[in-house]
């Protein structure tokens, strides 16, 4: 398995990029991410209980949660979260309990606060993915799951070449198509309390990855 060169994005770049995307985000990413988003929320609902969604963005996932869950969402980009707030104000999403500005690198929650931590189209964008995963594992209860939905690096062939080419040009707009799965696997291997539960590719665009925290 080949690793792409590391191009972790920095916080300022991501905030600027998603501040710019916010007004058109739902129109653009709503349809593209639909299948992935539904699969991630379904996986979260199968565990149920308290859910933390990191990088919740404009709240596109809100309609997919139900009474089996109590959701808290966090994000670092105020214009994205402002849109999520407006959705909440409609009163249509009683299962979404709280949304807050917060950096996933420094979660302001007690250890073992959540049954599930969901990160949809986020883990490849953060400045320090391993730290964010450590934080997710910290706030997770034993038996709980981390559910990731992201585009993962194709690793080989023309797909990988295109992703490397695109990656050099799309950093400033907050896209990162060359994040290797092996990096997630290696993170799990550093932890005695985490096991990889599943990787499921949903077409060429994105993959579901689930980690379980051992009890
Ligand atoms: C591609 S959007 C995905 C939004 C939403 N999860 C969805 O599926 O529509 C990435 C989001 O992650 C947020 N984000 C990036 N880095 C973050 C961090 N360190 N902490 C919290 N949120 C972050 C961005 O602000 C942005 O809203």
From TrEMBL:
Its EC number is 2.1.1.-. One of its GO terms (biological process) is methylation. Keywords: Methyltransferase, Transferase. This is Class I SAM-dependent methyltransferase. It holds the Pfam family Methyltransf_11. It comes from the Bacteria. Residues 52-147 form the Methyltransferase type domain. InterPro entries: Methyltransf_11, Methyltransf_Superfamily, SAM-dependent_MTases_sf. It comes from Flaviflagellibacter deserti. The keyword Cytoplasm does not apply. GO terms for molecular function: methyltransferase activity.
